[in-house]
Amino acid sequence: MTRELRSLITGSSSGFGRATAVTLARAGHRVFAGMRAIASKNAGPASELAELAAREGLALRVIELDVTSDASVDAGVARALDEAGGVDVLINNAGVLSQGPIEAFTVAQAEAMFQVNYLGAVRVNRAVLPAMRRQKSGLLVHVSSAVGRVATPLFGHYSASKFALEAMAECASYELAPLGIDVAIVEPGAFPTTGVMANAMQADEARAAEYGALFALAAELWKPVIETMKRQGPPDPQQVADAILKLTELPAGERPLRTVLDPLGNGAAEEINRRTEDVQRAYIEWMGLGGVLRRAGG
């Protein structure tokens, strides 16, 4: 890299977010690792990350940033902008999982999931983009999921929230390309070692049990993943962090819109991406917006 990139990451307390914060900092980025409740629930992870940064001499600062709060997002982004003078890379990583029949979750639970997985990214993008537009450069990375492209029974609300994130991010890629800002979507598959299931939103088991055989299958969903892990070992979340680092290092305008990282999957997300790319481009051309694609390198 020719200069220090200033990067802001949400959901940095564990999993992909923590791995990415450390990876980018070790690569020379100035990193703002955002997470909520750094004085309470996430005091331990925040302290550990700060201690690691001090020990290794990394330009990594933990900041309070709750993606469900306008005030918290605005304050966190303002702090990064004030201290670094700008943000070059934003990584929308904060997310929450659910598993169970759609009916087994309340409307309030569905709203809470969209607040994190979709509206959280909308909030942070809105806070960061004015500065990126002024500097006429930047990269927005959205951490989605393989089930953000493949409709998956018993992951209905999670899939829906990630489908929404994917649609928003792709639309933004067309809108922002003429302004010099790239958008990328990262689609991880199952990475059980991130601990994502431990924090999953809980379904109403009594309501879910009324689905009979389908509900019984919920416990079986992870069996193919477990069997694959027995053969080849658990996938390392570092793969996602390394892929995000690679995206930041690619030249502006040459970053792929979607990157799939599904070592335990069957290739469904890659196939859907491949089949829809030409259709999407043809549709944009038909709308008379082909110039946007060409400016984006399409």
Summary of the model, kept short:
This protein has 298 residues and is an alpha/beta fold. Helices cover 49% and strands 12% of the residues.
Please give a structural write-up.
The protein is α/β, with parallel strands linked by helices. Helix content is 49%, strand content 12%. The chain is built from twelve helices and seven strands. The chain has helices at residues 15-26, 43-56, 70-84, 107-117, 119-135, 156-176, 205-209, 213-217, 223-232, 238-249, 268-286, 290-295, and strands at 6-9, 30-35, 60-64, 89-92, 138-143, 181-188, 258-261. The protein has a seven-stranded parallel beta sheet with strand order 3-2-1-4-5-6-7, with helices on both faces. Helix 1 (15-26) links the parallel strand 1 and strand 2 (30-35). Helix 1 (15-26) crosses helix 10 (238-249), helix 3 runs parallel beside helix 5 (119-135) and helix 4 runs parallel beside helix 6 (156-176). The protein is globular and about 55 Å long. The relative contact order is 0.13.
How much is the radius of gyration in Å? 19 Å
Major sheet description: 7 strands, parallel
> What structural category characterises the helix and strand content?
alpha/beta
Helical fraction equals 40-55%
SSE order, one letter for each helix or strand: EHEHEHEHHEHEHHHHEHH
Mean pLDDT across all amino acids: 90
Distance between the termini: 24 Å
Helix count from the secondary structure assignment = 12
